[in-house]
Fold each of these.
Amino acid sequence: MIHLENVHKAFANGHAALAGVDLEIARGEVFGIIGRSGAGKSTLVRLLNGLERPTAGKVEIDGIALDGLSGEGLRALRRRVGMIFQNFGLLGSRTIFDNVALPLRIAGADKARIAARVPELLARVGLADHRAKYPAQLSGGQKQRVGIARALATDPDILLCDEATSALDPETTRSILALLGDLNRELGLTIVLITHEMEVVRQVCDRVAVLHAGRVVEAGSVADVFLRPRAAETRALIDEDGEDARPLAFDGPLARLTLQGDAVLQPVLTRIARETGTDFVILDGRIGRLRDASFGQLTLGLSGGNTEAALAALRQHGEVAA
Amino acid sequence: MSGWFANVDWSEIGQACLDTLAMLGGSLLLTLALGLPLGVLLFLTSPGQVWQNRVVSGGLALAVNLLRSVPFIILLIVMIPLTVLLAGTSLGVAGAIPPLVVGAAPFFARLVETALREVDRNTIEAVQAMGATTRDLVFRALLPEALPGILAGATVTAIALVSFTAMAGAVGAGGLGDLAIRFGYQRFQTDVMLVTVALLLVLVQLLQMAGDRLVRHFTRR
Ligand SMILES: Nc1ncnc2c1ncn2[C@@H]1O[C@H](COP(=O)(O)OP(=O)(O)O)[C@@H](O)[C@H]1O
Ligand SMILES: [Mg+2]
């Protein structure tokens, strides 16, 4: 649905923000783009609704090339692509109702349609009681909900999120991400989500691309990229996410076990310990969820018993790297 | 009372008040009407905005700065031929309005531009991302968002115009400033000077209060 081919973007000052980006985003997926500040994420996402023009390369949405669009063609595309922002971008001088109505008014909707549609949108984001308030009277999370309702007003197929949760506390972030996940499932909305936080990608994305210095250094399913990172930049992002990435020293054979799906809930270690007489020391571990799937990743020290047999048994339940 | 203000001709003061109010009202209306679009144009053509254009924005900025750097008293004099062309006379209330507008509109335009610059970048982008035309952007987002700042700018401009009208009085425009100069200054009638200054002060105070009230009314935070 979204297709980027060898996209370059250099700013007037000569700075190359994007240096050859290829990307393919499918209809109905939640696609994350993660990278450090300055990596080019905002520039990339702004290409998708023509807020920014590439200096070279191709940007297509549903087969429509964006560089051929201007005037009414570009405005029509923008009505199909909603966008939300880190600082919300609400109009402080307008009520919540009028903020959400604005895209409809711009699209030329009549009064009756606006009067019907806006309450529907506000109810969808859980703000039905706040229509007469002004943005300054809302919390950050509520403001972003208004932003989402506004972005959805013209029934877009695609929602672009530029650091949409970066100004929010962790709990509010989770609730906004849960809302985005629901919208993706219920409306089949394609979501492109820019973030510098691994946690955001883990909670809501299906696939992810890692952007570094204007290039995609790694892309794939969140499970692949998160559990089996290949690029050094990805590993660094994941490591920063945990508290202390330095491995504990252990005198003996080591195994890094990755479990996904049902295996996470099985008593794998104790069973193998009983059967092989090998004891396990857990040196490092993460257990949790990637969007809706569970995962576990443990670094184990093996001690005593038949360690070869224990390793073989571990391999039957998940991936093992030494 | 009459012993204290022996030189004061109250009917003349009354006429001067009306003249000052007429000059202020007429020039303020025209200043706002010309300065607002000029300020919007200054903003839209500046770097990073929808109509960014170095030549237009540089040219406008130069013209605005030129008019702002000419002392008003000089502007009054050099504009006389143009004033006669526009108003039919260079004297009286009508003759004062063209130079007042030319002096104040660039000033107000800059204040409008500054107010527009305060509008959050994300808000402008959000409205563009909705598929807004530039016209939508200006009328549905920029002007409503910048309204308190624009009203504050209009207040400052109105007060500047009060002191401009007093100066215009010096070259035959009439009004309170004219009285202050002719009687209060040139004939040492201190009582006339005091009365006119007090009236100008009241006018400035009223303008400031009305402006502040409007700004507060349209500020939503
Ligand atoms: N309008 C601009 N002019 C010049 N440089 C810019 C502009 N916008 C962004 N940049 C630069 O491009 C790089 C990428 O910016 P951005 O896409 O905002 O990164 P991110 O969103 O990943 O933090 C940064 O180095 C930034 O300074
Ligand atoms: Mg950014």
Note: Chain A is about 35% helix and 30% strand.
Amino acid sequence: MKKELITLNINGDDHEIAVHPWRTLNEVLRDQLHLTGTKLGCGTGDCGACTVLLDDQSVSSCLTLAIESEGHKITTIEGLAPEAVANSNLENCELNPIQESFIAKGAIQCGFCTPGMIMSSKFLLEQTPNPNEDEIRAGLSGNLCRCTGYNKIVEAIADAAEKISPTK
Amino acid sequence: MTLPQFTFLAPTSLTEACALLEKHKGKIKIKAGGTDMIVRLSHRAVKPDYLMSLKKIPNLDGISYTPGEGLTIGALALLREVDLSPLVLEQAQMLARAAHATATVQIRNMGTVMGNVCNASPSADNIPTLVAMNARIVASCGVKEREIPIDEFFLGPGRSALQANEIATAIKVPTLAPQSGVSYQKISPRSKVDIAAVNIGAMITLNDDGECQVARISMGAVGPTPLRARQAETFLLGKKITDETMAEAGRLAAEDAAPISDVRASREYRKLMVEVLTTRALKEAVGFAKN
Ligand SMILES: Cc1cc2nc3c(=O)[nH]c(=O)nc-3n(C[C@H](O)[C@H](O)[C@H](O)COP(=O)(O)OP(=O)(O)OC[C@H]3O[C@@H](n4cnc5c(N)ncnc54)[C@H](O)[C@@H]3O)c2cc1C
Ligand code: FES
Ligand code: FES
């Protein structure tokens, strides 16, 4: 069957690509564009490992058709620290404050859930700049982590919130 | 898993969309947010030749309110939009509670309330409140429109009264009568982010003497479609609303429930929970009705 030529705006750049209509945004990001920061876990909307922002709203890329993502602004984990990605150098480059807090608070173990967790955190902090613990946990309702037990992630998000929108 | 192959259709008018449904009858599926449909495709529960998105059809989004008539929730209104809509919070806050109780942040950013209704799952979060509030589903075949009372909309699990060439365009929720209240109650194995083991929507209207004039109770996940608790409703009519009458209504609702045992809950537990949640829903609804 015929592929369609579409333009996807990802992290500010336009990518012109040919896709089959049944390809998910997750498949196109990972397999065609090699933006493998976005993970694929369950493939059915349950785990959140595939979370990206579509027009600044968090969505599951595994349930989003690539073809329907045309005309929208797509943000992936790579878009949060473009410099680090461009230089493939994580030592001396600037990360997003959420990423820094995840590292500082030990919120990353195997790291598989981390990109999705961070994209969900970004959406949460945009909606609710100073969330309380319940709001943080509710904001992560669509993200599973098999390693950390969540507490460190909750701490990291509170820490990032304080850095981005100080209350004191 | 990779989705099965299909031809993707994105019509830009209702007339065109309905004509496509007619043309490809039996071989076409509709998608709105896709949070049910893409999962079903991925599981190969359906294998349509054509997948038709509603996203490019104008005027299917949005939430509006007409005084005296009520709320209109467009087919493409997202769960998130209904959850946060000031109009919904003002006119029918329990619809917002139900939308909020549905799924996860990401799924609420993608899925629609109409998709939840059309998917016709017995445990759907948004159905019981809509039944309690006596909503109507507007269906269009591209040339003609009809309104389907929600009581007649569900035919079985996954089966609705929509014809093969019809698209549901909006949900109409009538304005509540004075001295009315509504409640939505849900219980699920995990406290959050889970399909309901039992859910209850209730609406009650009182007269000046505190007697029940109208009661509508809808029970989810306890039958092949959402069920009305008819015995409880009949019992309440004309009665003074007290703790005792509400407890008895709960007991009668459990009699009307016809649950099965599955991974989420046993039949016995579900019956008990129907009783508890019905009484709880009535208490909350009566509280609103009195204010
Ligand atoms: C991880 C996850 C968690 C979930 N949790 C819950 C939950 O807690 N509670 C719950 O109730 N549901 C839950 N769901 C189910 C689903 O998200 C909801 O039912 C959602 O509201 C569906 O909306 P949609 O727009 O995505 O529907 P779609 O998948 O686009 O469509 C659903 C069905 O309705 C039909 N349809 C949609 N719109 C129309 C229309 N306008 N006219 C005619 N037919 C139409 C489609 O053909 C399809 O059969 C969950 C799903 C996932 C993936
Ligand atoms: S991979 Fe998309 S939610 Fe799990
Ligand atoms: S760190 Fe391993 S899944 Fe979260």
Note: The radius of gyration of chain B is 19 Å.
Amino acid sequence: MEAFAQYLIAVLNLGSIYALLALGLVVVFGLLGFLNFAHGDLMALFGYCLLFQTLWGVPFWIAVPIAIVFAGLCAVAMERIAFRPLRGHSPMTLLITSFAISGALHVIFQITISPRSKPIPIPEILSGYITFGDVFIGRAQIFTIIVAVGSLLALRYFLANSRLGVALRASAADFDVARAMGIRANRVIALAFFLSGVLAGVAALLWISQRGAVFPTLGLTPMIKALIAAIIGGLSNPKGALYGGFFLGALEATLLNVLSDDLVVFRDAAVLLILVFFLVFRPNGIIATNPEPMR
Amino acid sequence: MLKVQDLDVRYGAVAAVKGISFEVAKGELVTVIGANGAGKSTTLNAVMGLVPLSGGEISLNGKSLARVPVENRIGMGMSYSPEGRRVFKTLSVLENLKAGGSTLAKSKTEARIATVMDRFPTLRERRNQDAGTLSGGEQQMLAIARALMTDPEFLILDEPSLGLAPKIVSQVFDIIAELREAGVTILLVEQNVKKSLAVADRAYVMELGLIVKSGPAHEMSDDPDIHDSYLGAAA
Ligand SMILES: Nc1ncnc2c1ncn2[C@@H]1O[C@H](COP(=O)(O)OP(=O)(O)O)[C@@H](O)[C@H]1O
Ligand SMILES: [Mg+2]
């Protein structure tokens, strides 16, 4: 029973971070038809913004929302500077551009800040454990689950109920027709990038609060996991990103539990094997729909 | 109302529309008929601003549309129901209508949704259902309803009866006739030549990117060539 509770927490913890990141990828993919490889670097941008604020003495809980908005604005800037001039080019061109942005950002972080890991002081309240009977749960994990579920519900509410949310979903369903209805492409695309940046910022908060440091390639590992989650779930649908994220979280937690200590190094290999399985047998993911991205 | 002059549209090496000119006067229902691949949808997409022109000039109420992006054309009184309906499948019926009314003031949207639903009662029953789960006929009604959200002066309809059961086809043409009676200017592309000539004031016939014939709709339906090419087998 305790073991199961621990396992469940591990699944939710990993899954919710992957789901947040995968959602950010999918929101942009739904409109422009490419995976933004620089998405993970928004996590580092969040981290550095948080780092500098704490160095300047800004209280952690004030610095966090500022850094989240900063990550959102960085994503908007990324689109404005790098992707918008390429509007109308093939998704492949955009994908390769996003590789270039990612590489450039890593170098910029290394030169202007530091190639090394920089510690970020995490508030006391996020460290240590809470016990329920015999079950120990990390406070950071509880924080992760609450923040992730809260963000997902807020996003869902926004997409379902706000005008902009409906415009975004209409554009993802059929961009040309949405534009013919007077929905502004530039505005919707900027919104999608802002949301993806905010989601990356929230994911970074959760990731960093369990690790306490920021470094130039911080976003690389979670970003690749999110990519896998998004592909498994289906790139064309936000629900797919959720399923994919939690599926991957469950998969990793399970492998961690069932693989013996000398086999646990093969965990990532096993995950990639399952990705290959999906690419071969279910390339459109768990949830497949047929959107009309912008041409 | 609409004036198209020497319109040229090419997709790479393919010339889809080759220098056609036509007009739609205010309050008129004009139909464009022609075989598959004649360039009818391309013409409508050019008028809506969804494909770039390779040449020619399009104007609405005397104002050139050359520099008007597609997003702004609805604000000039234009509206569009595309070929194949293209409702937003992952959005509910209500959300589709809201999207159609994106340019309306928030306060006006609800009232407009109610008006449009009065015309299409099935949509009211299915307001919270995803558009992708509607039948073909219902999706077509939704596509037209969505285009009516802005109370357009000028409505563009691309094959609204395509693939529908005969009874639904009649309903669609009834709605088109009603809209015309209500004073909406309509540019209608149709495969159903007989029915579209029956509701239209004037007609153009397209073949391989060119307009090969034009005239009052009732004359066209008596034209022996039209009879042989478009009405013979079907009628
Ligand atoms: N997006 C496109 N890319 C390339 N060729 C196209 C495209 N759309 C239409 N065409 C071509 O342009 C011609 C006219 O097509 P279309 O306007 O759809 O005709 P219609 O609506 O009369 O059936 C056809 O030869 C078609 O193959
Ligand atoms: Mg067509």
Note: Residues B 40-41, 83, 159 surround magnesium ion (ligand 2) (CB under 6 Å).
Amino acid sequence: MTDTEIFDKVKEILVDQFDLEENEVSLTTDLTNDIDADSLDLFEVLNRVEDDFDIKLAVAEDIKTTQDLVDKVKAQLAA
Amino acid sequence: MAVIVNNPLFKKLGMKYPIVEGGMTWAGTGALAAAISEAGGLGFIGTGYWHGEDVRREIKRVKSLTDKPFGVNVMLLSRHIREVFDVIIEEGVAVVATGAGDPSPFLAELHAAGIIVMPVVPSVSLAQMMEKKGVDAVIAEGMESGGHIGMLTTMTLVPQVVDAVNIPVIAAGGIGDGRGVAAAFMLGAAGAQMGTRFLTATESEIHPNFKAKIIKAKDIDTIVTGNILGNRARVLKNKMAKNFVKNEVNELQKEKPDAAAMEKLESGTLRRAVQEGDKDGGAFMAGQISGLIKDEKPAADILSDIWTQATDLMGIDNTTL
Ligand SMILES: Cc1cc2nc3c(=O)[nH]c(=O)nc-3n(C[C@H](O)[C@H](O)[C@H](O)COP(=O)(O)O)c2cc1C
């Protein structure tokens, strides 16, 4: 999977989860500060990322931005 | 529809009642855990930020009082978590419950040691993630609870978690009598966890001031601290709790809220409530069900009274598991 494909899929999850417009999500989007995700929202996102990419993430992962999410997915897909 | 109370998990533990003691830092001592397990529930030692040797001391205390299985509740954020798990494995504890955090890094070794693992979950997605990691059950805890809490109520959280996972769900938060336990089963739970109700058990070693405060409490006598700065905790109202909430608002109005300073204000206050009964300065963690609790009685009576009432209401035999 290319970075762009991963990003597109992650974006799709974020758009759906937080009712955003596509153009509101970029790689630098800060999940906590830009889209007001609280810790329970983040679990929801991680849960869906796990299912959609068929990977496992640690719950405690330090994820701040869309880029962080994409990186985690990339690392897990490569593992 | 038949109500199923003999799930394999509780059967394996030889429990007589599908009722679990919620792990309680400082308050959940070996003596209380032993009394609950001995009577046929599942007792838990609360460990908070203890060192391994403190945990071992309480485990040994339980073992000196009962041969029945019991559990240890661990705080995954503790700096001593590694040594705590070492002690738990060495001592052959039956069950581990985890509060805030992700137990999955420790799951393989706990399972290899034959230990049942059940995390507390505040939401459906966390319950699903935990199921995927392979935990044995989840404790769905509503915000009626005493101690650190999430956002959902027990009434709303439990059935949604039950629908989302295929492992046993234990309902926690706001359960204090047989009606509450029966309600938990109606919501699809396999068992009920209680914290506050057991605080006034005869064997509970909390300060008499703390017990008196629970028995005197009315429905509206708890307050949630940490709403603004995070780490929400439900406590009985007193000077410390009200000041905390007030300071929290002031802190937030500052340009740079000092969460660390607020945390410092909070740390140690639960111990002061439990061990010293410090009426003004202690954090008397207790749930909204405090208003229903009017007496101190042996853990065995609490369990049998509650189960008699619950089975009566559910129209099932008062048989044991
Ligand atoms: C004094 C006190 C301390 C607690 N400490 C912990 C803890 O260390 N870890 C944890 O997972 N839950 C803790 N809890 C939550 C309980 O395990 C339990 O889930 C809760 O009390 C259930 O709600 P109830 O109080 O309405 O029965 C604590 C609760 C109380 C009242």
Note: Residues 218-285 of chain B form one domain.
